[in-house]
User: What shape does this take?
Amino acid sequence: MITRILAALILILLVVVVWQRGSVSIAHRAADNAAALRDVAEGERDNARAELSQAQAVIITERANAARAGAVAAQYEKDKADAQVASDRLVADLRAGNQRLHDRWQAAIATSELSAAAAAGALADGGAADRIESAGRVIGAAATCDAQVKGLQAFALVCSGGAR
Assistant: This one.
């Protein structure tokens, strides 16, 4: 009977030892799984931080580019307005006689002066006013084109990252 009790106790102890080993093994596996999941989560966190940092750098760069593009646009508008003022000033100076047209443009005036007697009987010559207006338009268009080219070149530099 004692042998049976001892055999039963040994059997119970053996079951407890096997059960305990299984529990410890399960606990180790759970700890290993948790550590692996923690490593994956930390890797994802680090990747997310890196992507956030890159996105912030892109935003900062884009804001700086937008500010430079805005400055280029403002300069273009100023240059365009200055071109119009210069054109208007030239027309006013031509009308007041403070400026003279280039010889190519003056030829028409000389021709009309030669035939002043013939023109006296005809209607008033609007050619002089037309030449003045044309000269103003030509100068204004050239200055506007210059302003546009400068603006586009500056914007191209901004877009290419050349103007920092």
Q: What stands out?
A: The chain has a mean pLDDT of 81.
